[in-house]
Amino acid sequence: MSVLYTGVWGQSVTNDTLAMPTLYGFAIAAPTPDRLDEFISFMEEELGPNGINTLVLRVDYNYSYESYPKLRNEDPLTKAQIKKLVKSAQSQNIALIPQINLLGHQSWASGLEKLLQEYPEFDETPHVKMPKKYEWPNKDSLYCKSYCTLHPQVHEVVFALVDEIMEVFEASAFHAGMDEVFYIGDDQCPRCGGQDKAELYAAEVGRIRDHLATSDRKLWIWGDRLLEGKTSGLGMWEGSYHSTEAAIDLIPKDVVICDWHYDVAEPTPALFATKGLSVISCFWNKAMVTTAHMEMMGFFQENSNPRMRPRYLGTMQTVWSPAGSFLDAYYGKSTNQSAMDQVASFKAMINYLDQNEK
Fold first, then answer.
1. DSSP classification of residue 249
2. What is the mean pLDDT of the segment spanning 306-331?
3. What percent of the chain has pLDDT over 90?
4. For residues 294 and 261, is the Cβ–Cβ distance under 8 A?
5. Omega into 137 within 30° of 0, i.e. cis?
6. How far apart are CA 123 and CA 280, in angstroms?
7. Superfamily of domain 21-356, CATH level 4
8. Which of 112, 248, 256, 292 would be 220's cystine partner, CB 3.0–4.6 Å?
9. Phi, psi of 218 (to 5 degrees)
10. Could you give the CA distance from residue 242 to residue 158 in angstroms, rounded to a whole number?
11. For the chain, how far is it from start to end, CA to CA, in angstroms?
């Protein structure tokens, strides 16, 4: 029996491996302090009992960082509050994975996020000014700002945040986001202008991965920048129009890909798996699409050879409204349609698990 590699959960994956524990994930913004206890109850009463074994929490700048206190948002979670989340997750055998958006998503609408507020010199496109009223499309192709991956001080700052959040979460994996990056290798950037965008993107993935590897931790990212968007028909959001897709062949093979498609269950997990990458198929707000994702990943797991099979890790519900809004809709306290659609998607996931995994 020969060992091929050590899997994302630490298992030895061998030539005769027929099955691995399937990942069932839930990704959402970290709750605000005033909703923390309610969210913990949701974890213990709904996530764990319904088979969800992985929770990705988008923290970003909503933590009381000690390394760079000026990068805290208002009313951040404290260390003691995070420890309550950790204790709850452990009680439910839920792997807790923190997320800080790195590279892209350094602004939203008309406002900068904390990193570029405090360190404007990290801005990849300082010539693009934030509008008073944001609209899409716009002449600057501004969706979200990025930091320049070649700025000599940027990693000193962001890696300090990563190290701090990983320690408090007691986590073995970190989600770096890295989705929907439209600004990279900008022609007006004095450091990376004119350089190959795929190589720049892959190099940043590699830096983050290598930093995490020094403490035996794994990197997760969204997969859209690794997919070609035009010929495939995936479009500029679920795929790349900015020539970063070649990075799929350049990034380390132990990076875990969260492959999101929200309108149909695109079969792109097979592409990532054939490239040697482990993949999670992700959905959002359409119950029928949720079920299709889960059926698709089940098909891939059942109909793949022993080398490919372990790369299909599982599926994950994503939520893009605040945690409080989701909880209100879940418990019938709100009729917000966007939140209700996400709740319906999640309920389709747990219904599938109930019918097929128990």
1. G
2. 98
3. 94
4. no
5. yes
6. 31
7. Glycosidases (3.20.20.80)
8. 256
9. -105, 155
10. 24
11. 31
